[in-house]
Amino acid sequence: MKIVEIRDAVVPISSPLRNAYIDFSKMTASVVAVITDQMRDGRPVVGYGFNSNGRYAASGLLNERFMPRLREADADSLLNDAGDNLDPHRIWDVLMSNEKPGGHGERSVAVGVIDMAVWDAVAKIAGVPLWKYLADTYRGGVADKDVFVYAAGGYYYPGKDDTQLKDEMRRYRDMGYEVVKMKIGGAPLDEDIRRIEAVLDVVGEGKFLAVDANGRFDLETALAYAEGLKPYNLFWYEEAGDPLDYALQAELSKVYPGAMATGENLFSHQDARNLARYGGMRPDRDWMQFDCALSYGLVEYMRTLKAIGEEGFSPRNCIPHGGHQLSLNIAAGLGLGGNESYPEVFAPFGGFADGIAVEGGRVGLHQSPGIGFEQKSALIDTMRKATDT
Known about the structure:
By secondary structure, the protein is an alpha/beta fold.
């Protein structure tokens, strides 16, 4: 058994939307295909991976460092002890050979893309969905039968008014989502409060609405928003300040009694551990949003779960950023708190298998081998065309 070839491509995921910090008009994503010599249904087993929105394609790092290391590695060194499948942990060690600790940056994205493709291939070779493979390997065979999901949207668009915002949220509720999320921080506080109240007219109660500032605020502004948000008892107040400003997050926790969420822009288990230790996060109510596709992949994500567990947090405190199928598999297989979803943006990378509807704010699981990309027709077509597989 061996990896025959590894390919990458750059795919645009541009959109006119913006949050409080960036617009997405020139956003790209890397797509990777790991081609093996194993055959299933007359086709080679191919594992696919891509990076989540918010970070650009990592083609330079992929081609200069990480894919060459995988190509040059001894084939047997990439296998498990039984020699009947790839070993994602050994492959990760090869990818990260000759890399200094710290300074994670965009290399975490490059490794995460390859790691996703490897896990997809591993589960396909094993002939089971990845969520089942994870549950059987790491959780004694126990998997969640469905997963909580929320609909992320509420972006700022040119000319978008409160009526259009409300219509968007009604569509999400009609799709089966209970909790929706909207952006804040890209407008003055009073305007954002008006937008929040407009959405509450649709969803009814604050427990069905999360807000996301995308790290825009300094401490003074974060605290002002906290005071403004208190009366609404929201599902969460997300990423008020810079993701590495643990002191700001800790100060916020002293005055904001509701749930908070952050972590999507932390890319290592060390950073996650520092958030748990110094960020004032509260295991009884707060959420951590680490996205394995941006943070060295699932191999590192399991280290992250261990690190925050040692600080009193459970996998149930984790609802990953990204809205992709890998996180859905992880949520079900490792017992996370849920998963993000992008019903109307970042197509075709967001969303889940075709034909599986969201019901009561939860989504069921695919039954095909691997991550389930083949069950999402627009996505698998995009990845196959991009990588000529």
